[in-house]
Amino acid sequence: LFYKLFGFFYYLFIINIILINLIIGSEIKGQYYFDCPCPHIIAHQGASMDLPPNTIEAFQLALDHGADIIELDIWRSMDGVWVVIHDRNLLRITGVNKDITQMSFDEIQSLDAAYNFSDSSGNYLYRDKGYKIPSLEEVFKNFKNEKINIEIKDNRKLGLSDLVELIKKYQMQQKTLFVSFYYSVIKEFRKVSKNEIATAASKSDIMRMIYFGKLPWYKIPFDAFQMPFYSKKVERYGLKNPKWIENMRSRGLEIHYWTIDNYKDIKKAFSIGASGVITNRPKVAYELLAQMGKR
Q1: Which residue, of 33, 151, 212, 283, has the fewest CB within 10 Å?
Q2: What is the pTM of this model?
């Protein structure tokens, strides 16, 4: 009798696991980072010309303006919290001359993320209005159904395991793309994440691709290129050539250019075959794609 009961409950357990996987699968279906609408509008630090960059409010406005993907930057605080902000030194953004890696998250939260943000006329309209520097966890909580492009700014490899656990906690593995300027950092991130989370090429990755990409033994370790649109080096290496873009895309790679804000250049990037543009003005990109019949 014991073995029959054990077998029955084991059977129920297996059925339960299958049902849970089916439910989770149905929830995340169609929410992968590279899913269309295409080409992608990637909002650089949110709608960062209209509201203080890298804030919850700027991210929401970017989505309201038609962005497909939120782009943001992260640093790790002294107490191990992944914090959403561009600069290591906080003077330019908050008016406080401190290193974010030497502050606790509570200390960071006391600062004004809008302190030095001004409009085109030089007015500080958002100072002392409650704009905070968010944690990455707060962004995940607020935008759990959105796609997010995340740049790791630190050149140290600290806390990457914690970062991957945070991504998994909010089931963001398929909805995020990570990039770092530093090859050692993105290489370690790929290792820690077991290559289950999309990454973009570092500068070293790009150079390896240029020199070894045609060799049969070369295995591409990344999912996307993200390159400066106005770089002379990008031009010189042919990384804006439509044929090169077409070739890379045929190999399953995305091509994104940053940071493009004027209508003419956004249109040019799309015309040469870019998979996406990173822009401070997502509304301009959306209106252009609407005119092109792609929104």
Answers
A1: 212
A2: 0.88
